[in-house]
Amino acid sequence: MDLTPIRKDDIEIGKPLSWPVYDSKKNLLLKEGYVVETQSQLDMLIAKGLFRNPAWSKQVHEEKFGEKENAPRQDILSFAEAGLQVGDTLQMQIENDQRYGVRLIGYLEKKSLLVTAPSSSESLILMRAGQTVVMRFFSGKNAYAFASSVLRVANTPYPHLHLAYPLEVRGKKIRKSARASANIPGSVWKESEPERKFPCILEDISFSGAQLSSASPLGEPGDILKLYLRISNEGAVAYVSPRCVIKRTSEIGSGEHCRCSYGVEFRDLDQAESFALQVLVYRNLFEIS
Q: Is the CB of residue 228 less than 8 Å from the CB of residue 213?
């Protein structure tokens, strides 16, 4: 296999690679379809020396990742078409690959986006003009992403960022419901026993509900629970206690290892709880999307 060097301009940030990438010894480094998401990641890769097979055609890539039957189809659309609303949560990935939840304040088409400044443990993350970011969000059952850069950092009347308006947004449909694995310990208050809390595990979570497991019986379909969770994200900690209703029950395991599993639906979330739970779902879903 003959290889040719890859130049920096051959790789576009935020777009899938059209060919596999090798090192100088012909060892595979990146598969076709891999997405280089930040400028710092690209600089690091180029410094190592990258090569590709010039015989690998873009048509092969499209057949594998776009047109093959049953393969997830990626759509390209404008930011306005993605359907984000003021106050919606986005995930911001910055150059050190850390990810933070921010909110959309507003946007002016073809000019800029306004989002809240990212923070960790109630401390603002230092951002600078020209810094590259990757933004991700969900709308319906579609996951979207786009690359942008910081135009301006503003601190008055509150910390916020002006981001470059994206030329395009790439999205793909999530085949199953937007449900992310969580495995987070918590506790549950039962309406029938208000003096006690029962330990539980949050097995997975979606935007509208969760799957819980517990060694203690928590109730039957229709019963009301209150869930207590400690959510940690990039050093920031949030405590949430959403009300939920049991929709279904089942048993896991047998004998002394038997646990009860409960599908619950969230009810009457306030803004802070909704934001914290959205960040949790986004963080876990984006790890696998």
A: no
Give phi and psi for 17, each to the nearest 5. -65, 140
Instruction: Let me know: does 85 contact 104? Beta carbons within 8 Å.
Output: yes
The tokens of 82 are what? Answer: 């993605």
Between CA 170 and CA 75 the distance in angstroms is: 6
Query: Could you give the CA distance from residue 201 to residue 176 in angstroms, rounded to a whole number?
Result: 22
3-state secondary structure the chain: CCCEECCHHHCCCCCECCCCEECCCCCEEECCCCECCCHHHHHHHHHHCCEECCCCCHHHHHHHHHHCCCCCCEEEECCHHHCCCCCCEEEEECCCCCEEEEEEEEEECCCEEEEECCEECCEECCCCCCCEEEEEEEECCEEEEEEEEEEEEECCCCCEEEEECCCCEEEEECCCCCEEEEEEEEEEEECCEEEEEEEEEEEEEECCEEEEEECCCCCCCCCEEEEEEEEEECCEEEEECCEEEEEEEEEECCHHHCEEEEEEEEECCCHHHHHHHHHHHHHHHHHHC
Q: Please give the single-letter amino acid code of residue 168.
A: E
- In this prediction, the residues of the chain whose per-residue pLDDT falls under 50 are 57-72, 175-176, 288-289
Tokens of 231: 């959510």
Query: What does the pLDDT look like over 255-271, one tens digit per residue?
Result: 566 678 899 998 888 76
Q: Tokens 């995930």 map to which residue?
A: 91
CB 138 within 8 A of CB 82: no
**Domains (range + CATH), the chain:** 4-71 (3.90.105), 75-173 (2.30.110.10), 179-288 (2.40.10.220)
Q: pLDDT tens digits for 78-110?
A: 888 888 889 888 888 887 667 788 999 999 998
